[in-house]
Amino acid sequence: MNAIQILGPKTNPTVSLNRSHPLPTSDPNTPDSEILVRVHAAGITADELTWPEVYSASNPTRIPGFDISGVVAALPSTYTGPLSVGDPVYAMLHPDRGKGQADYVYARPEELARKSECLSHAQAAALPIPALTAWEALFKRAWSSTSIPTGDASSLRVLVTGASGAVGNMVVQLAKKVVGARVVALASGAKHGYLRELGADETVDYAAADWEREVGMKSVDAVFDAAGDGVLARAWATVKDDGVVVTVADPPPVWATDKGAVPRELEGRPGVRYLYFVVSPDGETLGRISGLIDEGTIKPLPVVEFSVDKAVEAWDFARRRGRQGKVVVNFVADA
Ligand SMILES: NC(=O)c1ccc[n+]([C@@H]2O[C@H](COP(=O)([O-])OP(=O)(O)OC[C@H]3O[C@@H](n4cnc5c(N)ncnc54)[C@H](OP(=O)(O)O)[C@@H]3O)[C@@H](O)[C@H]2O)c1
What residue ranges carry the coiled-coil annotation (predicted)? Predict the structure, then answer.
Protein backbone atom coordinates (compact mmCIF):
# COMPACT_ATOMS: atom_id res chain seq x y z
CA MET A 1 0.00 0.00 0.00
CA ASN A 2 0.97 3.69 -0.19
CA ALA A 3 2.37 5.03 3.08
CA ILE A 4 4.15 8.22 4.07
CA GLN A 5 7.15 7.69 6.32
CA ILE A 6 9.26 10.05 8.40
CA LEU A 7 12.78 8.70 8.16
CA GLY A 8 16.04 9.77 9.78
CA PRO A 9 16.68 11.29 13.19
CA LYS A 10 14.40 13.83 14.90
CA THR A 11 17.10 16.46 14.33
CA ASN A 12 17.00 15.97 10.54
CA PRO A 13 13.87 14.10 9.46
CA THR A 14 12.93 13.44 5.85
CA VAL A 15 9.42 12.76 4.60
CA SER A 16 9.14 10.07 1.94
CA LEU A 17 6.46 8.09 0.10
CA ASN A 18 6.69 4.29 0.19
CA ARG A 19 4.52 2.78 -2.55
CA SER A 20 4.88 -0.83 -1.39
CA HIS A 21 4.52 -0.70 2.36
CA PRO A 22 3.00 -3.88 3.86
CA LEU A 23 -0.65 -3.68 4.88
CA PRO A 24 -1.19 -2.95 8.58
CA THR A 25 -1.94 -5.74 11.03
CA SER A 26 -4.26 -5.34 13.99
CA ASP A 27 -2.85 -5.11 17.50
CA PRO A 28 -2.49 -8.75 18.70
CA ASN A 29 -3.51 -7.63 22.20
CA THR A 30 -6.81 -6.13 21.06
CA PRO A 31 -7.79 -7.91 17.80
CA ASP A 32 -11.50 -7.69 18.63
CA SER A 33 -11.56 -3.93 19.01
CA GLU A 34 -9.90 -2.68 15.85
CA ILE A 35 -11.70 -1.49 12.75
CA LEU A 36 -9.87 -1.44 9.43
CA VAL A 37 -10.39 1.86 7.60
CA ARG A 38 -9.66 2.49 3.93
CA VAL A 39 -8.16 5.98 4.24
CA HIS A 40 -9.42 8.44 1.63
CA ALA A 41 -7.67 11.49 3.08
CA ALA A 42 -5.33 12.29 5.99
CA GLY A 43 -4.60 15.68 7.56
CA ILE A 44 -1.09 16.95 8.25
CA THR A 45 -0.10 18.66 11.50
CA ALA A 46 3.34 19.88 10.44
CA ASP A 47 4.67 20.08 14.01
CA GLU A 48 4.23 16.31 14.16
CA LEU A 49 7.79 16.16 12.83
CA THR A 50 8.86 17.37 16.28
CA TRP A 51 6.56 15.11 18.30
CA PRO A 52 8.31 12.26 20.19
CA GLU A 53 5.61 9.67 19.30
CA VAL A 54 6.79 9.59 15.67
CA TYR A 55 10.27 8.52 16.77
CA SER A 56 9.25 6.16 19.58
CA ALA A 57 10.04 2.46 19.55
CA SER A 58 6.31 1.72 19.41
CA ASN A 59 6.17 3.25 15.91
CA PRO A 60 8.74 1.22 13.91
CA THR A 61 6.92 1.94 10.63
CA ARG A 62 7.54 5.69 11.16
CA ILE A 63 4.18 6.37 9.50
CA PRO A 64 2.80 9.68 10.83
CA GLY A 65 -0.76 10.93 10.80
CA PHE A 66 -3.51 10.91 13.38
CA ASP A 67 -6.32 12.62 11.48
CA ILE A 68 -8.09 10.49 8.90
CA SER A 69 -11.29 10.22 6.90
CA GLY A 70 -12.27 7.12 4.96
CA VAL A 71 -14.65 4.18 4.85
CA VAL A 72 -14.94 1.12 7.06
CA ALA A 73 -13.14 -1.70 5.22
CA ALA A 74 -13.52 -4.52 7.78
CA LEU A 75 -15.05 -4.99 11.22
CA PRO A 76 -13.95 -7.46 13.90
CA SER A 77 -16.17 -10.54 14.04
CA THR A 78 -17.26 -9.66 17.59
CA TYR A 79 -18.24 -6.06 16.71
CA THR A 80 -21.79 -5.12 17.75
CA GLY A 81 -21.65 -1.33 17.30
CA PRO A 82 -23.52 0.91 14.86
CA LEU A 83 -21.01 0.88 11.97
CA SER A 84 -21.14 -1.27 8.84
CA VAL A 85 -18.57 -1.98 6.14
CA GLY A 86 -18.64 0.91 3.67
CA ASP A 87 -19.73 3.55 6.18
CA PRO A 88 -17.90 6.90 5.89
CA VAL A 89 -16.04 7.70 9.10
CA TYR A 90 -13.43 10.11 10.44
CA ALA A 91 -11.15 9.97 13.46
CA MET A 92 -8.25 11.21 15.46
CA LEU A 93 -6.15 8.10 16.11
CA HIS A 94 -4.33 7.72 19.40
CA PRO A 95 -0.84 9.27 19.19
CA ASP A 96 0.75 6.00 20.39
CA ARG A 97 -0.64 4.22 17.33
CA GLY A 98 -1.02 6.94 14.67
CA LYS A 99 -0.05 5.64 11.22
CA GLY A 100 -2.94 7.34 9.42
CA GLN A 101 -0.97 8.61 6.42
CA ALA A 102 -1.42 5.35 4.51
CA ASP A 103 -3.98 3.58 2.35
CA TYR A 104 -5.22 1.52 5.32
CA VAL A 105 -5.11 1.94 9.08
CA TYR A 106 -6.68 0.28 12.13
CA ALA A 107 -8.79 2.50 14.38
CA ARG A 108 -10.59 1.84 17.66
CA PRO A 109 -14.39 2.21 17.79
CA GLU A 110 -14.14 4.95 20.42
CA GLU A 111 -11.94 7.03 18.09
CA LEU A 112 -14.37 6.96 15.16
CA ALA A 113 -17.40 9.04 14.28
CA ARG A 114 -19.59 9.12 11.21
CA LYS A 115 -18.41 11.66 8.67
CA SER A 116 -20.85 14.48 8.00
CA GLU A 117 -22.44 14.10 4.56
CA CYS A 118 -21.81 17.83 4.09
CA LEU A 119 -18.06 17.21 4.04
CA SER A 120 -15.71 15.69 1.51
CA HIS A 121 -13.22 13.21 2.95
CA ALA A 122 -10.52 15.89 2.57
CA GLN A 123 -12.56 18.38 4.60
CA ALA A 124 -13.30 15.75 7.26
CA ALA A 125 -9.64 14.69 7.50
CA ALA A 126 -8.69 18.30 8.29
CA LEU A 127 -10.95 18.49 11.33
CA PRO A 128 -10.25 15.98 14.12
CA ILE A 129 -7.22 17.38 15.97
CA PRO A 130 -8.15 21.07 15.47
CA ALA A 131 -11.78 20.53 16.45
CA LEU A 132 -11.03 18.24 19.40
CA THR A 133 -8.32 20.60 20.67
CA ALA A 134 -10.66 23.57 20.49
CA TRP A 135 -13.50 21.63 22.14
CA GLU A 136 -11.28 20.37 24.96
CA ALA A 137 -9.79 23.85 25.52
CA LEU A 138 -13.21 25.47 25.85
CA PHE A 139 -15.41 22.82 27.42
CA LYS A 140 -13.04 20.69 29.48
CA ARG A 141 -10.08 22.89 30.39
CA ALA A 142 -10.98 26.59 30.58
CA TRP A 143 -14.47 25.77 31.73
CA SER A 144 -16.43 22.55 32.10
CA SER A 145 -19.65 22.31 30.14
CA THR A 146 -21.51 23.18 33.35
CA SER A 147 -19.23 26.01 34.49
CA ILE A 148 -19.47 28.17 31.37
CA PRO A 149 -21.44 31.18 32.49
CA THR A 150 -23.81 30.77 29.54
CA GLY A 151 -26.44 32.95 31.17
CA ASP A 152 -24.25 35.95 30.57
CA ALA A 153 -21.96 34.45 27.94
CA SER A 154 -22.23 37.57 25.82
CA SER A 155 -20.31 39.41 28.54
CA LEU A 156 -17.45 36.92 28.21
CA ARG A 157 -14.64 38.28 26.05
CA VAL A 158 -11.96 35.87 24.84
CA LEU A 159 -8.70 36.32 22.94
CA VAL A 160 -7.71 33.68 20.37
CA THR A 161 -4.09 33.76 19.16
CA GLY A 162 -3.06 31.91 16.02
CA ALA A 163 -6.69 32.55 15.11
CA SER A 164 -6.25 31.96 11.39
CA GLY A 165 -4.67 28.54 11.93
CA ALA A 166 -6.56 25.27 12.13
CA VAL A 167 -6.94 25.16 15.92
CA GLY A 168 -7.57 28.92 16.16
CA ASN A 169 -10.28 28.75 13.49
CA MET A 170 -12.15 26.13 15.49
CA VAL A 171 -11.75 28.02 18.78
CA VAL A 172 -13.08 31.21 17.17
CA GLN A 173 -16.14 29.38 15.83
CA LEU A 174 -16.96 27.33 18.93
CA ALA A 175 -16.38 30.28 21.30
CA LYS A 176 -18.69 32.44 19.24
CA LYS A 177 -21.34 30.01 18.00
CA VAL A 178 -21.59 27.55 20.88
CA VAL A 179 -20.48 29.54 23.95
CA GLY A 180 -21.79 32.90 22.71
CA ALA A 181 -18.69 34.80 23.85
CA ARG A 182 -17.30 37.98 22.32
CA VAL A 183 -14.25 36.86 20.31
CA VAL A 184 -11.06 38.83 19.68
CA ALA A 185 -8.98 37.16 16.95
CA LEU A 186 -5.23 37.84 16.71
CA ALA A 187 -3.98 37.19 13.17
CA SER A 188 -2.22 38.81 10.22
CA GLY A 189 -4.24 41.62 8.63
CA ALA A 190 -4.78 39.56 5.46
CA LYS A 191 -6.90 37.05 7.43
CA HIS A 192 -9.13 39.55 9.27
CA GLY A 193 -11.99 39.53 6.75
CA TYR A 194 -12.20 35.73 6.83
CA LEU A 195 -12.11 35.65 10.64
CA ARG A 196 -14.99 38.14 10.82
CA GLU A 197 -16.96 35.83 8.49
CA LEU A 198 -16.29 33.00 10.96
CA GLY A 199 -17.73 35.09 13.80
CA ALA A 200 -14.86 37.09 15.29
CA ASP A 201 -16.19 40.34 16.78
CA GLU A 202 -12.81 42.07 16.88
CA THR A 203 -9.65 41.44 14.88
CA VAL A 204 -6.17 42.57 15.89
CA ASP A 205 -3.01 42.40 13.75
CA TYR A 206 -0.15 40.51 15.36
CA ALA A 207 2.25 42.76 13.42
CA ALA A 208 1.14 45.79 15.46
CA ALA A 209 3.87 46.96 17.85
CA ASP A 210 1.49 47.06 20.80
CA TRP A 211 -1.24 44.58 19.91
CA GLU A 212 -1.78 43.64 23.54
CA ARG A 213 -2.80 47.25 24.27
CA GLU A 214 -5.16 47.12 21.30
CA VAL A 215 -6.77 43.99 22.79
CA GLY A 216 -6.82 45.79 26.16
CA MET A 217 -4.75 45.20 29.30
CA LYS A 218 -6.46 42.79 31.74
CA SER A 219 -9.54 42.90 29.52
CA VAL A 220 -10.31 39.30 28.47
CA ASP A 221 -11.79 36.47 30.52
CA ALA A 222 -9.80 33.84 28.67
CA VAL A 223 -6.84 33.56 26.31
CA PHE A 224 -6.79 30.58 23.95
CA ASP A 225 -3.25 30.44 22.59
CA ALA A 226 -2.42 28.48 19.43
CA ALA A 227 0.71 30.47 18.55
CA GLY A 228 2.90 30.14 21.66
CA ASP A 229 6.34 31.56 22.45
CA GLY A 230 6.55 35.35 21.94
CA VAL A 231 2.82 35.65 21.30
CA LEU A 232 1.95 33.86 24.53
CA ALA A 233 4.55 35.96 26.38
CA ARG A 234 2.62 39.10 25.41
CA ALA A 235 -0.87 37.65 25.77
CA TRP A 236 -0.64 37.28 29.58
CA ALA A 237 -1.05 41.06 29.91
CA THR A 238 -4.51 40.88 28.30
CA VAL A 239 -6.12 38.44 30.75
CA LYS A 240 -8.17 39.63 33.72
CA ASP A 241 -6.86 38.90 37.22
CA ASP A 242 -9.46 36.13 37.62
CA GLY A 243 -9.16 34.87 34.04
CA VAL A 244 -7.66 31.77 32.45
CA VAL A 245 -4.92 31.19 29.87
CA VAL A 246 -5.00 27.94 27.89
CA THR A 247 -2.14 27.21 25.52
CA VAL A 248 -1.67 24.23 23.21
CA ALA A 249 1.12 25.56 20.99
CA ASP A 250 4.31 23.63 20.38
CA PRO A 251 6.85 23.60 21.87
CA PRO A 252 5.09 23.69 25.26
CA PRO A 253 6.19 26.39 27.71
CA VAL A 254 8.68 25.43 30.44
CA TRP A 255 6.02 25.59 33.15
CA ALA A 256 4.01 22.91 31.31
CA THR A 257 6.72 20.29 31.80
CA ASP A 258 8.31 21.60 35.02
CA LYS A 259 5.42 21.32 37.45
CA GLY A 260 7.00 23.66 40.03
CA ALA A 261 7.49 26.47 37.53
CA VAL A 262 5.21 29.50 37.34
CA PRO A 263 5.06 31.80 34.30
CA ARG A 264 7.15 34.82 35.29
CA GLU A 265 4.56 37.09 33.66
CA LEU A 266 2.14 36.04 36.43
CA GLU A 267 4.19 37.17 39.41
CA GLY A 268 1.80 38.93 41.77
CA ARG A 269 -1.27 37.65 39.92
CA PRO A 270 -2.31 34.50 41.82
CA GLY A 271 -5.88 34.56 40.51
CA VAL A 272 -5.00 33.79 36.89
CA ARG A 273 -5.40 30.10 36.02
CA TYR A 274 -3.12 28.73 33.30
CA LEU A 275 -2.70 25.38 31.62
CA TYR A 276 -1.27 23.49 28.69
CA PHE A 277 -2.69 20.17 27.53
CA VAL A 278 -2.28 17.56 24.80
CA VAL A 279 -5.48 16.63 22.99
CA SER A 280 -6.93 13.11 23.22
CA PRO A 281 -8.94 11.07 20.69
CA ASP A 282 -12.69 11.35 21.24
CA GLY A 283 -15.11 9.89 18.70
CA GLU A 284 -18.13 11.03 20.71
CA THR A 285 -17.11 14.68 20.43
CA LEU A 286 -16.34 14.23 16.74
CA GLY A 287 -19.95 13.05 16.40
CA ARG A 288 -21.07 16.36 17.95
CA ILE A 289 -18.80 18.29 15.58
CA SER A 290 -20.42 16.46 12.62
CA GLY A 291 -23.80 17.55 14.00
CA LEU A 292 -22.70 21.20 14.32
CA ILE A 293 -21.52 21.12 10.72
CA ASP A 294 -24.69 19.42 9.46
CA GLU A 295 -26.88 22.09 11.10
CA GLY A 296 -24.65 24.88 9.73
CA THR A 297 -23.50 26.14 13.13
CA ILE A 298 -19.82 25.82 12.27
CA LYS A 299 -18.02 25.87 8.93
CA PRO A 300 -15.42 23.34 7.85
CA LEU A 301 -11.78 24.35 7.75
CA PRO A 302 -10.44 25.53 4.41
CA VAL A 303 -8.26 22.75 2.97
CA VAL A 304 -5.32 22.61 0.59
CA GLU A 305 -5.36 19.18 -1.05
CA PHE A 306 -2.41 17.20 -2.42
CA SER A 307 -2.64 13.81 -4.15
CA VAL A 308 -0.61 11.05 -2.51
CA ASP A 309 2.11 11.22 -5.19
CA LYS A 310 2.72 14.84 -4.07
CA ALA A 311 2.89 13.92 -0.38
CA VAL A 312 6.45 15.21 0.12
CA GLU A 313 5.44 18.61 -1.31
CA ALA A 314 2.38 18.52 0.96
CA TRP A 315 4.53 18.20 4.08
CA ASP A 316 6.80 21.04 2.87
CA PHE A 317 3.79 23.25 2.22
CA ALA A 318 2.23 22.42 5.59
CA ARG A 319 5.29 23.87 7.33
CA ARG A 320 4.94 27.28 5.66
CA ARG A 321 3.60 30.21 7.60
CA GLY A 322 0.94 32.46 6.12
CA ARG A 323 -0.79 29.73 4.11
CA GLN A 324 -4.60 29.65 4.08
CA GLY A 325 -5.89 26.21 4.89
CA LYS A 326 -5.16 22.90 6.51
CA VAL A 327 -3.05 20.59 4.35
CA VAL A 328 -4.54 17.21 3.49
CA VAL A 329 -3.15 14.26 1.50
CA ASN A 330 -5.69 12.39 -0.62
CA PHE A 331 -5.10 8.64 -0.79
CA VAL A 332 -8.10 8.22 -3.08
CA ALA A 333 -8.55 10.63 -6.00
CA ASP A 334 -11.25 13.30 -5.44
CA ALA A 335 -11.45 12.50 -1.73
N1 LIG B 1 -1.27 20.44 22.49
C2 LIG B 1 -2.05 19.86 21.55
O3 LIG B 1 -2.78 18.89 21.81
C4 LIG B 1 -2.07 20.43 20.16
C5 LIG B 1 -3.07 20.07 19.25
C6 LIG B 1 -3.09 20.67 18.00
C7 LIG B 1 -2.12 21.60 17.65
N8 LIG B 1 -1.15 21.89 18.57
C9 LIG B 1 -0.16 22.94 18.28
O10 LIG B 1 -0.87 24.17 18.26
C11 LIG B 1 -0.28 25.04 17.32
C12 LIG B 1 -1.32 25.47 16.30
O13 LIG B 1 -1.68 24.34 15.51
P14 LIG B 1 -2.44 24.55 14.13
O15 LIG B 1 -2.69 23.21 13.58
O16 LIG B 1 -3.55 25.48 14.31
O17 LIG B 1 -1.29 25.26 13.27
P18 LIG B 1 -1.46 26.22 12.00
O19 LIG B 1 -2.68 25.86 11.24
O20 LIG B 1 -0.14 26.20 11.33
O21 LIG B 1 -1.71 27.65 12.64
C22 LIG B 1 -0.72 28.33 13.36
C23 LIG B 1 -1.22 29.75 13.54
O24 LIG B 1 -0.31 30.45 14.39
C25 LIG B 1 0.06 31.68 13.77
N26 LIG B 1 1.42 31.98 14.16
C27 LIG B 1 2.50 31.19 14.06
N28 LIG B 1 3.58 31.83 14.51
C29 LIG B 1 3.16 33.05 14.90
C30 LIG B 1 3.83 34.19 15.43
N31 LIG B 1 5.14 34.19 15.69
N32 LIG B 1 3.10 35.29 15.68
C33 LIG B 1 1.77 35.33 15.44
N34 LIG B 1 1.07 34.26 14.94
C35 LIG B 1 1.79 33.16 14.66
C36 LIG B 1 -0.07 31.43 12.28
O37 LIG B 1 -0.26 32.67 11.62
P38 LIG B 1 0.31 32.88 10.13
O39 LIG B 1 -0.47 31.96 9.23
O40 LIG B 1 0.04 34.31 9.83
O41 LIG B 1 1.76 32.52 10.19
C42 LIG B 1 -1.31 30.54 12.24
O43 LIG B 1 -2.48 31.30 12.28
C44 LIG B 1 0.90 24.29 16.74
O45 LIG B 1 2.05 24.61 17.49
C46 LIG B 1 0.53 22.83 16.96
O47 LIG B 1 1.65 21.99 17.01
C48 LIG B 1 -1.10 21.33 19.79
Answer: none
